[in-house]
Design a protein that fits this description.
4-stranded antiparallel sheet, Alpha-Beta Plaits, 2 domains, alpha+beta, globular, about 35% helix, 3 helices
Length: about 130
Amino acid sequence: MTKQSTDLIFFLLSSSIICLSATCHKMTTEKASPKITFDLDQIGEDGLGNHPGSKVAIDYEYCIPADEQHAALVRKIDPSLKIMKRSRGRIGCNENQWLCMGNTHQENWRKILLKLAEEEFVQQIDRTFFE
């Protein structure tokens, strides 16, 4: 075997290992739902935004049907939940919906958001900005 063919084999093996590692990483990383309108990758494991000099929790909001059955379901999913029965929020809940607000500064924040997004009655989850 020549030096050139040995180098080529080494290169191909190295490239394959790198590609497989990247594929495995992608398979273990949970994909965000299209219902979630903000970038979850901009939030650290601690639930705080990872912009330099600005480590704050990310608040979010969504609408649910205005009844206690749906409220009880989302309360079980999200311990940070606050339900506003008379507010439309920035997201624009209608008169038959209640505004729900939560934040990412809690354990398992990503799983919580993904679980909320799986609910059929949750149409969209937006980031909330308080002024």
